[in-house]
Every structure is written in structure tokens, then in C-alpha cells.
Design brief:
This protein is of the alpha/beta class. 39% of the residues lie in helices and 12% in strands. It has 19 helices and 13 strands.
Length: 430
């Protein structure tokens, strides 16, 4: 029997009759080795060629990330989809998907191939910015404000320490103290300017004062830490902010840096050392846990409520701290701590990380529900009266979500510092 050819690369048996059975040629088609030309690997290559983007190419579509990605839970997303789309010739740099990842690290936790969205996304975003691609206007506004004013809200830098006037206790400022201190407290942008962030800052100031901690803040010398700006793709601006803060820190002598928020914690612990700024850094919950026995003695007013706790991604999954906040909550008299179904290692992201803090309206156009709304619904399902937090991004996000989901009246949002302060019950609050 002879073989005929039907098109390049295909060998097909000619029509034959074998022992009275009629065999059409297609029945026995054979294929020769061939070059696959039905997709364009260039769009995957443009990501894997970036420093930090390599691991997108390691995905083997196992789908383990699908069930844990918070954006996928309210939409159609996740590393698997991003990998598949790029294989199909869609450029990530031109896609809205580029801005939806919150860098929460839940996919990285489960991915057998260590596809690392926490490195891929900032690298791809930086490439898009450098290529002059369209970026969400609200993000552009934040970049400009942080560059010009040293905070992402565009607030007056001279007013950065105005919150201390209503703290009810003295809050020393490094430039005036003129001596070494034990704790340099980096307050952060949202606790300095956002009304509810200021409430938490004042609460923490009162707690530090009650504990007799030797501390001071930078006041108007402090600038945005820049970590979320880095993750949103503006690495150059992050470096500019970091260099300014490192220069300011170098003017003073202190034992440790205590921070209000997980993003600052991540910045000072993991990113500033790459630029020469090495510090002993603690999140405020870690610092307070070291003073637990003294705190217990001070917390004499029962708070009497059921409380649930939201793990902030950059304190928990990114930096492994799950217990300090819970230890503090359990130590507050009258507090009963209940856990949400998604907690600790599998905690659900509030949507604020990786630049998401400033992309709510953009995200709303590409998902069925804001991540903060979803999380508040999960908190309300526990029956808790209070959703406790220890990240300055979260109070505004969750208080908005309480209103938009209709959970108001049943659930309030409190920083752990506010709960502790309430239990200490200092009379002089200014
Ligand atoms: S878990 Fe990792 S390898 Fe599996 S589909 Fe997701 S990104 Fe790909
Ligand atoms: S880092 Fe978080 S938001 Fe981003 S793809 Fe992974 S699971 Fe989804």
C-alpha cells in the first residue's frame, strides 16, 4: 500500500479494501513531527523576559490557584488564567488584568511551581508604565500626589503631625527630643491623615504613654513608605521615597522601628535593606505583645463583645505574623474572639494591597463585588459585633463596605489599638 500526502506534515493512507472491508484513507491518518504555529509565544515571552517575570512561564495549568485567588472568587481571574491568556496571544501589558492582582500571595502559597505573582505583577506594571501604556487614572493621581506631597492622598505635608494635638497625651517628635529613643514610631500616611486612621494613631499613642515607652515620631519629616507604590509598578518613585526616609532615619538614634501598618512593616523589613536601610522593625502588635503582662494590668475596663479578626496579607502571609494580634485580642477583658471561615494562611484579602487601595472604582468594573464587601459579609456571618483590624488601609475600606453591604448596626470596625485603648480607659483624651 502506498501513502499519499494531504497537506504539509500529514501522511494519509490511500483508500483501500482489505479482506472485503472498505477502509477510507482518513481512517488511518498519520502526522509527522511539526512546528506548532497556532499561538504566539511572544506575549508570554514579553513577561517572562522581565526581571521578576520569569515564573509565569513555569505554570502548568494545574488550577490549584483557582480556588484561593480572592479576585477569582468575585470574578474570572488568577495566575492560571493570566498564563493561559498570554499563551493565546493577549498581552498582559494591555489588559485590565494587569491592575487587578492585589499581590495577596494566596496563589503563591499553594502553587506547586512557585509562580510568583508578587514579583510578576510589579515587573509587568513597571514595563507597562515605561512603555507609556494607559494606566488607571486614579493610580496616576496617587503617584503624582506621593511624589509631590510625600503621601498618596495629596495632603499638606506640613499637617502630617496635626493628629497629635487631640491625642490627649504628649507625642514627642524626634527633631525636638534631641536624644536617642528606644522606639521610633513610624506612623504612616493613613494614620496621619485619614480621620479613622488618626483615631487608631491616637489610641496607640495613649497605649505607649500608659506603658511608659520611650518613643518619638518623625512628624513632618516622615514620608510615605512607598511599598504599595512599588507593587503598583512605580519602582522609581518607591526608591525616591525610600531614600528620603532612610536619610531621615539616619539622622536619629533609636533601638527599633515600630510601625502602624503591615505595608510599612514589609517595606522596612524586606525592601529598605536592599537600599541600605537596615532596622530592627516591629509591627505595633508585635511590640505590644512584648508588654503583655503590663498591658493586662492596665486593661481594667471590660469591652464585652464578640470580635472577629481580619489577617492583613502583608503581616500574615507575607511575613508570617498570625499570633500577635490574636494574643492581644484574647487578652482584652470581655472580648470573645471568633474566626472567619477564611482566616490565617487562607485569609481573604481586603483588596487594598498591591495598589488595590486606590483602584476600587477600576476593580468594580471588572469584578462582581469589591473584595472588601466580600470580606465584611464573611465577618458578619460569624455573628461578631466588631471586625478588628491592624492595618491602616482596612478601616476605611471596611467601614465603606459595612455601609454598602448593609451590615451597619450589626458590625463595626475597630483597630486593635482602639479596643485596647478602650479597655485601658484613660480619662484624659483631649
Ligand atoms: S497553581 Fe501555579 S502552576 Fe497551577 S495553575 Fe496556578 S499558577 Fe499555574
Ligand atoms: S496574588 Fe492574590 S490576587 Fe494576585 S493572583 Fe495571586 S491570589 Fe490572586
Amino acid at each position: 500500500m502506498a501513502y499519499g500526502r494531504q497537506g504539509p506534515g500529514i501522511r494519509e493512507k490511500e483508500h483501500a479494501t482489505v479482506e472485503g472491508v472498505d477502509l477510507p484513507g482518513q481512517w488511518n491518518r498519520m502526522f509527522e513531527p511539526r512546528v506548532i504555529t497556532d499561538y504566539d509565544p511572544g506575549t508570554l515571552d514579553e513577561i517572562t523576559a522581565l526581571p521578576g517575570g520569569e515564573s509565569l512561564g513555569w505554570c502548568y495549568q494545574c488550577a490549584k490557584c483557582v480556588g484561593v485567588c480572592p479576585v477569582d472568587i468575585v470574578g474570572d481571574y488568577g495566575p492560571r488564567k493570566i498564563h493561559r491568556d498570554t499563551l493565546r496571544g493577549a498581552s498582559l501589558l494591555d489588559s485590565p488584568n494587569l491592575w487587578l492582582c492585589t499581590t495577596c500571595a494566596n496563589c503563591f502559597r499553594v502553587c506547586p511551581k512557585e509562580v510568583d505573582m508578587i514579583r510578576i505583577m510589579p515587573a509587568a506594571r513597571e514595563a507597562a508604565i515605561n512603555a507609556g501604556k494607559e494606566i488607571p487614572p486614579e493610580l496616576q493621581k496617587v503617584f503624582e500626589a506621593a511624589d509631590r506631597y510625600g503621601n498618596p492622598m495629596g495632603e499638606n505635608p506640613r499637617k502630617r503631625a496635626d493628629w497629635i494635638k487631640q491625642a490627649g497625651v504628649p507625642v514627642p517628635i524626634m527633631a525636638q527630643v534631641k536624644r536617642p529613643v528606644d522606639v521610633l514610631w513610624y506612623v504612616g500616611s493613613y494614620p496621619s491623615y485619614h480621620p479613622r486612621g488618626m483615631d487608631a494613631a491616637r489610641a496607640l499613642a495613649r497605649i505607649l504613654h500608659a506603658l511608659g515607652v520611650d518613643f518619638a515620631i518623625l512628624g513632618t519629616e516622615e514620608k510615605e513608605d512607598g511599598d504599595s507604590i512599588r507593587l503598583a509598578g512605580e519602582k522609581g518613585l518607591f526608591e525616591k521615597l525610600a531614600e528620603a526616609n532612610i536619610k531621615t532615619f539616619a539622622r536619629y538614634t533609636f533601638n527599633r522601628l515600630v510601625v502602624s501598618g503591615p505595608h510599612e512593616f514589609n517595606a522596612f523589613k524586606n525592601e529598605y535593606p536592599k537600599l541600605g536601610g537596615e532596622y530592627r522593625v516591629q509591627h505595633y502588635t508585635q511590640f505590644l505583645v512584648e508588654h503583655l503582662e503590663r498591658l493586662r494590668a492596665l486593661m481594667t475596663h471590660p469591652v464585652d463583645r464578640v470580635v472577629t479578626y481580619h489577617d492583613p496579607c502583608y503581616l500574615s502571609r507575607h511575613n508570617g505574623e498570625y499570633d500577635a494580634p490574636r494574643t492581644l485580642l484574647r487578652a482584652i477583658p470581655g472580648v470573645t474572639l471568633v474566626e472567619m471561615a477564611r482566616s490565617r494562611e487562607n485569609g481573604y484579602c481586603c483588596g487594598g494591597g498591591g495598589g488595590g487601595m486606590w483602584l476600587d472604582s477600576f476593580s468594580r468594573d471588572h469584578t462582581t463585588m469589591r473584595l472588601s464587601d466580600k470580606r465584611v459579609t464573611e465577618a458578619a456571618e460569624t455573628g461578631a459585633r466588631t471586625l478588628s483590624i491592624c492595618c491602616p488601609y482596612e478601616v476605611s475600606r471596611f467601614e465603606d463596605a459595612v455601609k454598602s453591604t448593609g451590615s451597619g448596626g450589626r458590625l463595626d470596625v475597630q483597630d486593635i489599638a482602639e479596643l485596647i485603648d478602650g479597655s485601658i480607659g484613660m480619662p484624659d483624651r483631649g
